[in-house]
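Problem: given the chain below (103 residues), write out its structure.
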Amino acid sequence: NTYYLSKWFKQNSLVFVTGSHTIWAGDKKPSKRFGNLIKSSVGSDGGGGGEGQEDGGGTTAAAAAGEDVLEMLEVHRGEFEMWVRARMAASATSSTGRGRGRA
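Solution.
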C-alpha cells in the first residue's frame, strides 16, 4: 500500500532543500512522498535559474547548485548527526526486532 510506504518514508528520511527551491513556492505543503523536508537557509537569496544558464558572472546555475549542496552539508552536519544518533538509539532499544531485515 502506497500510503504506508509514504508514511514510512516521511518518518525515516531527512531531506534538506535550499530555501530558494521551487518546492517552497505557493501556499500548499509539499507532498509527503518527498520525505521529511527541511527548508535550509542556504540558497535563500532568491537567485537561481535553469541548469546550464549563466548568472551573469560566468557561473552556471548547476555550479551554483553544487555549491549550495556543499554548503548545506556543512551547515546541517550537526543536525544530521543528531538525527542519525537518535535513530540508532531508538533502533538499539527496540525489542521487537522490526525494521532489521527479518521476515
